[in-house]
Amino acid sequence: MEFNSGESIWELMLTKRPSDTHFSQSSTPGGKSPLVRDDDDNKLDTHAVLFDGDKAVLGILAAGVVVTAAAVKAAPHVKSGLISLKSKLRRRAEETTEAEVPIPLTVVAEVEPEQPDPPRLRAV
Question: 65-75 pLDDT, tens per residue?
């Protein structure tokens, strides 16, 4: 994908470089150079490999279309499942509330246990 802006051509590219490396800073503000430097000591390591970006863009767009179509197709089933789950949870909450209704308690006065009579002394 190329865009000609008069003095420059802009082209979308996909790059490949080794792990633990980074692109060199370009003299153009905000740009990067295809020179690849080592992350540890910043020494020049190699050049990046450039691939046509059109295929990457087409792949990303195709993946987006597939995901969108799947979401549209699944949406009614997901909605139905969520409604079903919501009603089950509501029923369970109602059952729990009914089971937790307090049973009225009758208050019984506390009675002291009977004490046996103390032993009586006999007169002899």
Answer: 999 999 999 99
Q: Where are the beta strands (DSSP E) in the chain?
A: 2-4, 9-11, 13-16, 21-25, 32-38, 44-47, 49-52
Residue 21 is predicted with a pLDDT of: 93
pTM for this predicted structure: 0.42
56 CB neighbour count, 10 Å cutoff: 14
Of 44, 42, 41, 37, residue with least CA distance to 22: 37
How many Å apart are CA 34 and CA 7, to the nearest integer? 20
SS (H, E, C) 97-119: HHHCCCCCCCCCCCCCCCCCCCC
Contact indicator for 32, 24 with CB cutoff of 8 Å: yes
Beta bridge partners of 16: 49
